[in-house]
Design brief:
Layout: H1 2-9, H2 23-37, H3 44-55
Helix pairs in contact: 1-2
């Protein structure tokens, strides 16, 4: 599913927004997609559990 998500999110260079963002923003998006494809992500549930000690006061 992770790989499928990355393919679904791939940039569309013909779309209006891609040509309007900076090269730094494009590079950031590309890094995020690469991390997603390589499984270098942390599930939301794990992050909620990790931060819950600071958020639940």
């Amino acid at each position: 599913m992770k790989g499928q998500d990355a393919k679904t999110i791939e940039k569309d260079q013909t779309g209006d927004w891609w040509n309007e963002i900076s090269e730094a923003q494009k590079a950031s998006i590309e890094r995020g997609l690469k991390d997603l494809e390589e499984g270098k992500t942390i599930p939301h549930e794990e992050m909620v559990k990790f931060y819950s000690k600071w958020l639940s006061k």
